[in-house]
Amino acid sequence: MKHVISPLDLSMEELDRVLSLAERIFKNPEKYSECCHGKKLATLFYEPSTRTRLSFEAAMLNLGGSVLGFSSADSSSAAKGESVSDTIRVVSSYADICAMRHPKEGAPFVASLHSSIPVINAGDGGHNHPTQTLTDLFTLKILKGHLDHLTIGFCGDLKFGRTVHSLINAMVRYPGSRFILISPDELRIPTYLREEVLSANNIPYCEVKVLEEVMPKLDILYMTRVQKERFFNEEDYIRLKDSFILDAAKMKYAREDMLVLHPLPRVNEIAAEVDDDPRAVYFTQAKLGVYVRMALIMILLNISAEL
C-alpha cells in the first residue's frame, strides 16, 4: 500500500506515471468515468478548504466513485478530543482511500502509520501539499510542454507557503531548474530549504525584493498570498500583506511566453485586471488539478488505466 505525504514519496518514474495518466484522462475523461465505481474517498479536512477539497471530491465523482467526510475539525469527533490515529482507524473501515488536510505538520504522516487504506496529504500546516505540486507540474507539462530548464520566480510568502516548499522540492529533480525567490526578509524561504535542498544540490538561485527587476528573466511566476492564518500576530500580517502585488503595469516587464501560476485562493496579491492576460493561467491550473487527483486516486487504488 502506498501513501503520498510528500512530493518526494513519488519516484521520478511514479511521478511520470501520474502525469502521463492525468494527461490521458484530460484528453478523454469519459473513458475513465466508471473506473472507481463502488469505491469511496474519505475527505478528512481539519481546516477550511475550497479548491482542494472540492477538487478531490470532483475527481472521485468523475471516476464513478463516492465521497464521505467532513470539512472542518468542528464537525468531526476531533472537537471531542479524538486523535488523528483513532479517526483514521475508524475511517479505514468506511472508505477505500483518504485525503487529509490538517493544520499541524506531520498529522497526515501520523495517520498513514495507523491506516489500512492509502492516505493522501492534502496539506499539513506550512509543510507539504503534494497534490498541489502535482497540479503545478501538470500545468507546466500541458502549457509549457516540458518540466526541465525552467526559471521559476516564487513571489510573496515563501516562509509559510507549503505550496512553494513542495514545488521547490519537486523541481530540483529536473535538470536545468533555476529559482528566483522574491520576498521581504520576514518571509524568506526557510533555512533548511536554502541549505539542504538548493545549496546542497547546487541549484542556481537568488533572493531579491523587487519583482519588476526579475520579471524579464522568468519562464514562470508563481505568486502566493500572505496567509493571515500563518502569522502569530496581526500587526506583522497587516504590515506585510500588501508587499508584493502583481498588476498590469508589472506584467509589461514579463516575456510573452511567461506563465503566472497561483495555488489560490488569492486575496489582493494579483490585481483582477491581470485575469484577462492570456499568461495568467491560475484558473486553468485549478481545473487541471482535478485530472491529476483522478490519476493519483486510480494509481493508489491499483486500478488499471487500460480500460
Structural features, described:
By secondary structure, the chain is α/β, with parallel strands linked by helices. Helix content is 35%, strand content 14%. It contains ten helices and nine strands. The strands form two sheets. The chain has a five-stranded parallel beta sheet with strand order 7-6-5-8-9, with no helix packed on it. It has a four-stranded parallel beta sheet with strand order 2-1-3-4, sandwiched between helices. Strand 5, helix 6 and strand 6 form a beta-alpha-beta unit. The radius of gyration is 19 Å and the shape is globular.
- Averaged pLDDT, please? 91
Computed Rg? 19 Å
Give unreliable regions as ranges: none
Succession of helices and strands: HEHEHEHEHEHEHEEHHEH
Side by side, the strands of the main sheet go 7-6-5-8-9
Instruction: State the major sheet.
Output: 5 strands, parallel
Shape: globular
Residues in helix, %: 25-40%
Number of strands: 9
Number of helices: 10
Strand content is: 5-15%
Counting helices, strands and paired strands, the structural category is alpha/beta
Write the layout of secondary structure elements.
Elements (H helix, E strand, L loop, with lengths): L11 H16 L12 E6 L5 H12 L3 E5 L13 H8 L5 E6 L4 H8 L4 E6 L5 H15 L6 E5 L6 H10 L6 E5 L8 H9 L5 E4 L11 E4 L10 H7 L7 H4 L7 E3 L20 H19 L7
Parallel strand pairs: 1-2, 1-3, 3-4, 5-6, 5-8, 6-7, 8-9
Helix pairs in contact: 1-5, 1-10, 2-10, 3-4, 5-6, 5-10
